């Protein structure tokens, strides 16, 4: 099946270019135009990288564009260093002089690249526990420092008598800047929440790792006097340039696409597992280097790495304790909120929003529970139904706001009348219900009913209107008037309607004839 994706073709072309580059320096190193064509091979990727990064910068219209701008500047400066080499070897046909402008441009480009990485990841670094970050990254950097010292810086120091001091300065600055780049890249790997990052950033990280390898190898070959144009490390710089170009193209493709697949998440978890063991692996490599090359700097790096590992372990233990403490506090807060929310939901489910009295659901649950617990000793429960007389007239005449205020005042007066002897509930509309448990005789119930009628008949101030209301009360007593919830409710309701038929503003105790009256 034909692949119509142009970017796939671009990536394939870049890979083929690197292969051809290696074939050229491997099999045609005796060619008369070897240096000329090798420089062309080296220059083209740098041109492509500069063009792609400038294109990405111009197309990106957010704060991210500054990162691509700095990368573009670094690529242009890097290209300028290669142009200097091209000028000497392709136009003048002479060897590049030591401590030339090419070293200045290459060192400057490395510094600019370092600045771009710092700019890119400084926000993430600020969000990470600083001490743990430094411990992790410095442990990894220790091995880089030891290797750079043994194989790059130390040989240059030894050659100081026969080498131009400016040249020596560039060869030392190069690895120092590389260590800074390695530090930032290590931070990136430790900090990188790959679920939020995109492949373009991974390509950039890979590009700079390739650059570090190329720069370190270049400095080493220069110290041994074995570097020449068309060396086997030269394609690494081309690979670095192509990876930066690919990152720019990939970033343009990814813009606006935040989706991360499950397979990518699995790969990211593998990376994090590897990074967890990286500091320990660095310490092991340091001790291997110590056996190979006994040097005071290697000893110092080994000692520092051991100290860093121990401090890291103590730091993690302290962080774990702090995390447990924080988790415990969050747990307590969550439990408190759960209790509060449960109470809120219970109140919403079982209480009336207007009068703040228990509602019909609460009344039913409570009455059924009391009946079940009182069956053994047959202790009595009084159920009182209260209906406010002519409440509809108040609503129609003075408005619903006055009607609501009347219900609130009536609810408070009924509660005060019953006091703690019973439970007052609102059944809905202008109807209330009372449960009085442990009733000894009907006289207590009658006295309570009379007090309710008396208290409700007092003047009510409803927004400047003094109103007197009456009520009709029906009373049924368990188990005298019924042995189950339905019968008690039915009989209390029948008694209440009997009170209305008697002329209202009174109470009625249920009796059998009330059923006959309701049938009639």
TrEMBL record:
SUPFAM superfamilies cross-referenced by the UniProt entry: Nucleotide cyclase
GGDEF domain sequence ranges: 379-512
PROSITE patterns named among the record's database cross-references: GGDEF
The protein, known as: Diguanylate cyclase/phosphodiesterase with PAS/PAC sensor(S)
Record carries keyword Transmembrane: yes
Transmembrane segments: 9-27, 33-54, 66-88, 100-119, 131-152, 172-191, 203-223, 235-251, 271-290, 296-318
SMART domains: GGDEF (SM00267)
Keyword Nucleotide-binding applies: no
Domain of life, source organism: Bacteria
Keywords: Membrane, Transmembrane, Transmembrane helix
